[in-house]
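Workshop exercise sheet. Pairs work together: one partner reads the sequence aloud, the other fills in the structure field after running the prediction. Swap roles for the next sheet.
Pair: D.N. / O.F.
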Amino acid sequence: MNDFDRKIGRRPGARPAWFVVDFVASHVSMVSLGAAKRRHRTYEPVPITETVFYPFDGLQEIVGESHYYAGIHRVVSAWKDSGAADAPILAILRPEPGNPVDAHAVRVDLRFGDVTETCGHIPAYLAAGWGRGLRPHLEAGRQPVAHASVFGGTLEKPDYGVWLSTERALRRPRLRP
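Structure field:
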């Protein structure tokens, strides 16, 4: 028995401290890995036959755009290259039950023409409610969408921000020259 074992009050013949710490650390890490595997409902996807504008009040900010700047830029570039200043950019709303961060996550994809890219998610505190509202539309073969307004992408404000609304876009995006 060494001095450390005597200081912590270990009995002779007991397991060394490093063994106990290693066991606890490995057990905790295994428990956390298991927690990351969330159960979610699996179902056969219903073919989408139409789009429907999802009803909500006011404006809704999208979070996590910083992870998707390249995709947002591709959609905004396609919009700019089309020359159709009045053409809307649509936001496609998709529940993500397999999301490792939030089982209730609702992903938002921007679509203009044939370009579709992920731009972020509905904030976590609203996602569960939105997911419940989206489910009946998806089960009936309708794809919920909203109008999207993209802000930023200029020299003064290089970061993008995306807001959803039930009305046409608040302001059209601009690109860096």
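Discussion prompt: Strands lie at 50-53, 59-61, 89-95, 106-112, 115-121, 142-151, 161-165. What would you look at next?
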